[in-house]
Amino acid sequence: MKKHSIIAVIIAICLISCSKSDDQSKSQRGNIVGLNIKDAEYIYSAGSQMQGRSTESTDYRQIKIDGEDLPLSWIDSNGDTIRVESATKVWNINEEYIMVNTSQPLNNTDPTALKGCSYLVDKQSEAIYDLKILLSGETPITDKNGDIFMCDIIQSRASVKGSTGRVLYKIHTQNAPNLKIEEYVKVTKGSYTISTNGLCFHSGRYIRPSVGTKQYVIDDFTPNTTSADAFTSFDGEVLYLVVNNMDGDLIILKLDESESGEISASIVSQIALSSAITASTIPTKKNEDRGTIVIQFGGSFEFSPTSGEISKLPINLSGFFRDDMMEDCTVINTQGAMFKVVGKSKLEIVLWSDYSTKYIDLADKGIDITSTYSVDGSDLLYFSGFQYRESKSVIGTIDVDGNVEILESTSAPITDLIQTR
Q1: What are phi and psi of 320, to 5 degrees?
Q2: pTM of the entire structure?
């Protein structure tokens, strides 16, 4: 089914779902053991959930691959379906699993328990696996063995005395339903980058091999480092470090790991910067259109893994990287461009092909943007918004040339849309 057709179906369901009950939903009699997501192509919510409220439950529904709309429902041990009412967020993790976060544990006998939990759900068997902790599925990494890496949600650790940063967990999926959850690294500051081989850079300084417990530091490979970050190859298998040293050089190193977990590094590119730069991180983005890596560090640079060359770009893309973004900005990367949404209506578009820039203002069309998202393999930016001149909610797309197309309008805005296939 085409993307536009799917959205049209969702809109139609939104308009009637409030007045039509779901007969198959029953009260729970046995323990919850599954989720009815087999053959689901999309999971969505429609309502007024407040953005950022991770503990507020949301009403989720699903669209099957044949276009049938159904409520998202738990399956209990008696085979009955129970409407999902405690879900706070649904994430698509990989081809095999989704993850559902809940406001309280399932099958819990203590009604006062308020601790949120995450559940991994097998898309084919519909079985659920209790992960016992609350995780974020925003940037999951699946390694070559099918094991999954995810961080805990920071808010869930706020009440833990003396806790700082986040914990990156490895979920060993080879022995389902007896999943093993391993505390992989503690990310004390900044972010982390991990290859599909399990080689992990974190906290702006440390490198953890895929085997063993020994960790390395940047200075083991290049001395006098002042800033460091990492990125992976386009297939995810190779981990690169990008570092700045006291001499003012920008250096890219390729890391290799032996079977025993010993790590070695080789310099693949190096460029002298024109002036000293003070920054704690060196953020990067992948430009799949050109097969290059964009590096932001006192200016915008482009690294070609094919040629090994670093060149300075004629445009400064600092506003498209998180550390330099304004609070009211959102950046979405699509296959064809970077889209920066400023406030409710202004957009800046930078094409990946040649880094040319376009500006548009949806105020000319009387539209305020409320949410944005991208679809894998598409150049389009999808958005939901409010068309205030007609007093209606709309869903539309913006292409890389800045052309806006309104797909549908509704009185029930979609607040979350998850593609599961």
Answers
A1: -100, 5
A2: 0.82
Residue 332: which of 324, 345, 322, 323 has the closest Cα?
Answer: 322
Query: Distance of CA 372 to CAs 178, 195, 317, 414, Å?
Result: 37, 28, 20, 11
How many CB atoms are located within 10 Å of the residue 91 CB?
Answer: 21
Residue 336's Cα: distance from chain center in Å? 18
Enumerate residues 6+ apart whose C-beta is below 8 A from 412. Answer: 14, 15, 18, 46, 47, 393
Residues 373 and 332 sit within 8 Å (Cβ to Cβ): yes
Under 8 Å between Cβ of 55 and 86: no
Q: How many CA atoms, within 13 angstroms, populate the side-chain half-sphere of residue 23?
A: 0
63 residue type, one letter:
I
d(CA 65, CA 106): 28
pLDDT tens sequence across 379-401:
999 888 888 888 887 878 999 99
Residue 213 has pLDDT above 90, yes or no: no
- Compute the distance between CA of residue 295 and CA of residue 303 in angstroms, rounded to an integer: 7
Q: Quick check: helix, strand or coil at residue 5? A: helix
Q: Tell which residue, 234, 245, 325, 359, has the closest CA to residue 285.
A: 234
Stretch 293-313: mean pLDDT: 93
For residue 178, the 8-state DSSP code is S
pLDDT band at 109 (very low <50, low <70, confident <90, very high): low
Could you tell me which of 348, 364, 367, 368 has the C-alpha nearest to residue 356? 348
Helix (H, G, I), strand (E, B) or coil at 6: helix
